[in-house]
Write a structure and sequence with these properties.
Number of strands: 0
Distance between the termini: 10 Å
Largest sheet: none
Strand content: under 5%
Helix content: 55-70%
Structural class: mainly alpha
Number of domains: 2
Number of helices: 13
């Protein structure tokens, strides 16, 4: 653990907001009573819940140019940086497996192999060496190539007796590949949302973030940063929506149109946060998100682990979460509609972890994950 170091506060705020929203989405009081924007689209389409994980991957990429520059300034050799990349990817993947085991306990076999942290690990392992070794033009080429290659695979490769271009929830190349390689160790509702094939365009999301980060870092003024972020966001959003006419927005497949739309929204959101927090110096409202933003993965892992424990059956054939929701929160709120109580539980839970983040922040603790 290291003392927290200040860098771009608006990036911490946006990262913290993303983590807060991810915790809210993952922890409703009652899964049968959730507002539609907080539920992932079953297949084609994009809800608020769907943009959060791509945003976090984008932010990871955005931070890479800054992180590598700091380490170079400290005299770290390239071999040290590559070793750090490998170690971090391995740690993230291992933590993801721990969370999967906690979610399945006591029936941990067969253990699900993919997951949110596993995808983060693979994206980091694929993109960090590219950012470290090559110039931004290569990053853009690699991102574009990854998106086009993924589209070509979905559109041109037949599989399992089905024609090329089949992208329905029951029959698609991504699910077919996971069934062959991962088998029973993958989620199948309808397919694993963090499966193998989707890692390729997800890496493009990280590279898009890295490109935004390097241009942000090179800009000499706040106005030029705002112009670049805003214009880039609008362009990507328009391109993604146009592409979605032939390649639908789909988080499970992580389609190229989905990458462009979510990256465009991330750029616009970062521009707005930068304008308010760093340019306008309106920071009082954002402090809780800063607390989360400096320890995002540690808070996320702890919240997921605790959430799995609360979902486990303990006494009297009920779970602690169900008891808290129905015996404490529901009577206390008195909301007429269960969706509001369910959302209240999620916000209270996320706020608790925000408080944990605040304690770590005030004590100068930054947990490296």
């Amino acid at each position: 653990m290291k003392a927290a170091a200040h860098h771009i506060e608006s990036l911490d705020v946006f990262r913290g907001f993303t983590i807060f929203a991810m915790i809210v989405v993952n922890n409703p009081g009652d899964w049968n009573a959730v507002f539609p924007p907080l539920v992932h689209a079953y297949w084609h389409g994009c809800t608020f819940a769907d943009v959060l994980f791509p945003w976090f991957i984008f932010i990871m990429g955005f931070a890479m140019p800054f992180a590598f520059a700091r380490r170079r300034d400290r005299g770290h050799a390239r071999a040290q940086l590559y070793r750090r990349i490998a170690q971090r990817a391995a740690l993230l993947f291992a933590l993801g497996l721990v969370l999967n085991a906690a979610a399945a306990w006591p029936a941990v076999a067969p253990l699900r192999l993919p997951g949110v942290l596993q995808r983060l690990a693979l994206c980091y392992l694929l993109t960090a060496p590219v950012v470290l070794q090559f110039e931004p033009g290569v990053w853009a080429g690699a991102a574009g190539g990854a998106l086009l290659a993924h589209w070509a695979l979905l559109a041109l490769v037949p599989f399992g007796g089905y024609p090329a271009g089949s992208i329905g929830p029951e029959h698609n190349l991504a699910g077919h590949l996971d069934a062959i390689v991962i088998g029973r160790h993958a989620m199948t509702t309808p397919i694993d949302p963090e499966g193998l094939l989707g890692t390729l365009p997800a890496a493009a999301t990280a590279l898009a973030g890295a490109l935004a980060g390097v241009f942000f870092r090179a800009s000499s003024s706040a106005s030029s940063r705002l112009r670049q972020l805003s214009a880039g966001g609008v362009i990507l959003l328009m391109l993604g929506l146009a592409w979605s006419r032939v390649l639908p927005l789909n988080k499970h497949l992580w389609t190229g149109s989905f990458v462009l739309v979510t990256a465009g929204l991330a750029l616009v959101a970062i521009a707005a946060t930068y304008l308010v927090v760093d340019v306008g110096s309106l920071r009082a409202w954002s402090r809780p998100f800063v607390w989360l933003g400096v320890n995002p993965l540690a808070i996320y892992c702890a919240s997921e682990l605790a959430g799995h424990l609360l979902d486990g059956v303990w006494l009297h054939r009920t779970t602690p979460k169900a008891w808290l929701f129905w015996n404490v929160l529901q009577p206390a709120t008195g909301f007429r509609y269960a969706e509001w109580t369910s959302l209240a539980f999620a916000i209270v839970y996320a706020s608790f972890w925000t408080g944990v983040g605040g304690v770590l922040y005030e004590r100068g603790i930054r947990i490296q994950v």
